[in-house]
Each structure stands twice: as C-alpha cells, then as structure tokens.
C-alpha cells in the first residue's frame, strides 16, 4: 500500500501548514526539525504535504508574475522565496518539422536547458538550498552525472555554503565539470558509477557530514514540480487545452515523480479533472533502462542495474531512487516507458538542432522515445504532446561536435574560400 493520495488534513507534526509524509507507511514528520531524507520508521520515500493547496487562479495571471519563474508558484512551495538566479519560465517551443515527421496533432518542446545553469536542476536547487538555510547546515553535497553538481555548485555558492560533489570518474560531460569547478565546489571523482557515488553521499549525509541535495531530498522535487505547472499553464494559454501526454527522459526519476505530484495536487484542488492529467511517458537509454524494465515486467519496484552504459551520460543511472514515486506516476496516468538506442538519441538531437533547439544527448531521448512510440502506434496521431528537453547543448560539447558537422580548414584568402566552397 502506498500513500500517494494527497490529503490536506494537517497533522500535529506540521509547521505553518507544511509537513512530510512517508509514501509507504503514512507516518508524518515535521518539515524542518531534524534532517531526514527517508522515513524514520520504514525507510520509505517522503513527500512534502500542504494544508492549503493553490489552484491556477492563485498563481496570478499578470504579465510580471507569469514571468516570475519558480517562485511565482510559491503557494505550492514550502517558502515564499529562495536563493534565486532566477530559474524557471522556460520556453515551450513549436517544432513544426518534427511535429509533421512524427505525426502527432501537436508537438511542443519544453526546453529546460534554458535555466540559469542550463538544466531543470535549478528549479529543485532554488528550493532545496532555501531549505538548507532554514535547517541551518554548512556543507551541501550531491552525487551527480553532472547537471545536479553544476546547479548545486551555483546555488550553494550564491548562498555562501560549502559544496561537495561526487562524480563518476570519466563519465561526466566537460561543460558540467567546468561549471562545478568555476562555482567553487570541491569535486571528488569516484572510481565507480553514479549509483555508487549516491550510495556514498547518502552515507556521508547519514553520518551528519553534509546535507544531501539529490532528488532523494523531497524538497528538491517541490521545485521541479513547477515544470508541470508551467507546462499546463503555457500549453493551455497557447493551445486552449491541456496536453494529452508529457514525454521525458528518465534517470533518477525525480522529474517523473515531481510531475505526478503536481498533477495529483492540481486534481485535489479541482484545478484539473482526473481525465485532464497528461500521460507521463518516460524514456531511458537502452543501456540504462531499469524503469522501462519494471514497467514492461509489471513490477512494483525496480531491479538495480550494476552495469550501465550510454552516451547520454546524464541518464547513465541504474538505480533510480525515486522509482517508488515514479512507477505509480507512469501507470496511474496511463503513460508508459520506452528504451531508445544511442543512435536514436543522436538522430533526435540532430532533429531538434535543425529546429534551432540545442540540447544535450539525454534531453533528446524524449523525442527519440516519442518517435518510437508513435511508430509502434502506442501514441496516437490525434495526441497533443509535450516533450521535455532537460539540458542545454553546451553541457556536452564533445557529443554535440560528434553529432554535428566538422569544421573545414581553408586558407585566409577570399578566392581560396570561394574555390573551396565550389569544390
Ligand atoms: C539532462 C538530464 N536529463 C534527464 C535527467 C533525468 O532526470 P531524472 O533524474 O529526474 O529522471 C537528468 C538527471 O538525472 C539530466 O541531467
Ligand atoms: N542527472 C542527474 C543525476 C542525479 O539526479 P538527482 O536529480 O537525483 O540529483 C545529475 O545531473 O547528476
């Protein structure tokens, strides 16, 4: 039994209408007293709960508020403001050629690469670092395939806090390491994959050595929830209805969990009906697809993959810690999960680039997954779809250069240049 249904009955543990609930046993905990990432009683994942939940009208509709990003949604967050760069309010692109080629009624791309450090992680960090300040910690830490470390380094540094990041050696794209480095994080390169890095960070956090800001921390997901709120508002404003389906890349499954929570909260307040919840559709790289395996096998848990490999290094993850939240999210919304090859990811990255949308490989998995599901007839030609692209092209310059065209050396002379162009 899980306790994913949102209740607003305020328990004694609440502070200002906010508390934590275990999704497995239903135990409640105070939000900012003591540090916990999972349930003290059963080890289950925790969710942030609120006595008052907003509807769309509560977010306000004036132009300045609409461009306010994550904190415009403060009624759905534990604080009114936080350490902000600012983040959110990312574009929802038209991609007409892809829409025609894939053959759906409407296709939009929500480009989270346009956040301040170039990925959706900023939405989570603005809230997570605010909570760290509330609790009063000195050192923040994360395991990372790159983007989490870039975001934590920027937000932690802005907050004046020490940042420690553990990265799988040799498996993190250059742009991301450069970000963590320049923002002043202490970077440890671990001789092991991301999942081992996270095991170690969890141990460090349990020993009181650092405050963990991976998506196991339920407050991170509150910030990432705003992706769903923005998509719903932007899509309805432009298309007159909510999307039928949201397709997203899956790594640690934080976004999948966060989107599902946003939809459950909107349904609880009556802002949307159950049948207006978009189908959450996850995409993983074939070499790193434990969540797809669990969906295909009908399991209520994932089996950890110890050996994972993909050129989409951001989603090179074999033990998605948010699976207990994400699996019901996929199933209860009528979504699905699909694996795609690295070649399909690169093709999708090129197709997005042709539309002017520059993304890192993991992000392109959403388009690759949609292509596969449409070809298989799982996605219908009448569907209105949003694909989430999670990180910017410049995060992984090596992958971009490999997927793109090579520079051609020419002499520094106009006639030679013309001759070269004609040859
Ligand atoms: C660019 C990018 N896309 C997708 C993901 C997967 O997101 P999630 O862990 O929320 O499933 C990550 C990190 O995990 C990422 O960095
Ligand atoms: N892709 C992630 C992996 C860690 O995910 P998190 O959301 O649990 O922090 C990264 O960029 O490190």
TrEMBL record:
Catalytic function, reaction form? O-phospho-L-homoserine + H2O = L-threonine + phosphate
Q: Where is the signal peptide?
A: none
Q: What class of enzyme is it?
A: lyase
A GO biological-process term: L-threonine catabolic process
Modified positions (N6-(pyridoxal phosphate)lysine) are 121
Tell me the superkingdom of the source.
Archaea
On whether rRNA processing is a keyword of this UniProt record, the answer is no
Q: Write down the EC number.
A: 4.2.3.1
Query: Which residue numbers delimit the Tryptophan synthase beta chain-like PALP domain?
Result: 83-391
**Pfam families linked to this entry:** PALP
Location of region: Disordered: 395-423
Q: Which GO terms describe its molecular function?
A: L-serine ammonia-lyase activity; pyridoxal phosphate binding; threonine deaminase activity; threonine synthase activity
Please tell me whether the keyword Lyase is annotated for this protein. yes
Q: Which UniProt keywords apply?
A: Amino-acid biosynthesis, Lyase, Pyridoxal phosphate, Threonine biosynthesis
Needed co-factor(s) = pyridoxal 5'-phosphate
Pathway it works in: Amino-acid biosynthesis; L-threonine biosynthesis; L-threonine from L-aspartate: step 5/5
Q: What does this protein do?
A: Catalyzes the gamma-elimination of phosphate from L-phosphohomoserine and the beta-addition of water to produce L-threonine.
Per the similarity annotation, which family is this? Belongs to the threonine synthase family.
Query: What name does this protein carry?
Result: Threonine synthase
According to its UniProt entry, this protein's organism is: Halorhabdus tiamatea SARL4B
């Amino acid at each position: 039994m899980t306790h994913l249904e949102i209740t607003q009955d305020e328990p004694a543990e609440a502070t200002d209408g906010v508390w934590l609930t275990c999704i497995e046993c239903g135990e409640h905990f105070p939000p900012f007293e003591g540090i916990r990432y999972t349930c003290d009683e059963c080890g289950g994942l925790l969710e942030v709960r609120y006595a008052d939940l907003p509807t769309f009208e509560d977010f306000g509709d004036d132009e300045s508020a609409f461009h306010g990003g994550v904190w415009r949604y403060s009624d759905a967050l534990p604080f009114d403001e936080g350490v902000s760069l600012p983040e959110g309010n990312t574009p929802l692109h038209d991609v007409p050629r892809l829409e025609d080629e894939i053959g759906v009624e409407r296709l939009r791309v929500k480009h989270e690469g346009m956040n301040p450090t170039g990925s959706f992680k900023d939405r989570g960090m603005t809230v997570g670092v605010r909570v760290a300040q509330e609790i009063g910690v000195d050192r923040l830490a994360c395991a990372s395939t790159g983007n989490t470390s870039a975001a934590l380094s920027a937000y932690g540094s802005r907050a004046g806090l020490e940042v420690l990041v553990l990265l799988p050696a040799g498996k993190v794209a250059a742009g991301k390491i450069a970000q963590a480095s320049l923002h002043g994080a202490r970077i440890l390169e671990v001789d092991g994959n991301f999942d081992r890095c996270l095991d170690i960070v969890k141990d460090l956090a349990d020993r009181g050595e650092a405050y963990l800001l991976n998506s196991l921390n339920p407050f991170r997901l509150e910030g990432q929830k705003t992706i769903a709120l923005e998509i719903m508002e932007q899509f309805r404003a432009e298309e007159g209805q909510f999307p039928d389906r949201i397709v997203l890349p899956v790594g640690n499954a934080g976004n999948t969990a966060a989107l599902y929570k946003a939809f459950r909260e909107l349904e609880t307040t009556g802002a949307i009906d159950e049948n207006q919840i978009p189908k959450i559709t996850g995409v993983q790289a074939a070499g790193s697809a434990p969540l797809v395996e669990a969906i295909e096998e009908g399991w209520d848990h994932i089996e950890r993959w110890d050996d994972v490999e993909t050129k989409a290094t951001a989603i090179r993850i074999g033990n998605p810690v948010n699976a207990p939240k994400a699996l019901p999210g996929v199933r209860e919304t009528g979504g699905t999960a699909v694996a795609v090859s690295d070649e399909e990811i690169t093709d999708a990255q090129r197709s997005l680039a042709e539309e002017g949308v520059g993304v890192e490989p993991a992000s392109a998995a959403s388009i690759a997954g949609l292509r596969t599901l449409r070809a298989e007839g799982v996605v219908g030609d009448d569907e209105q779809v949003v694909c989430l692209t999670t990180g910017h092209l410049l995060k992984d310059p090596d992958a971009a250069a490999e997927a793109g065209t090579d520079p051609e050396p020419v002499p520094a002379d106009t006639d030679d240049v013309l001759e070269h162009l004609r040859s």
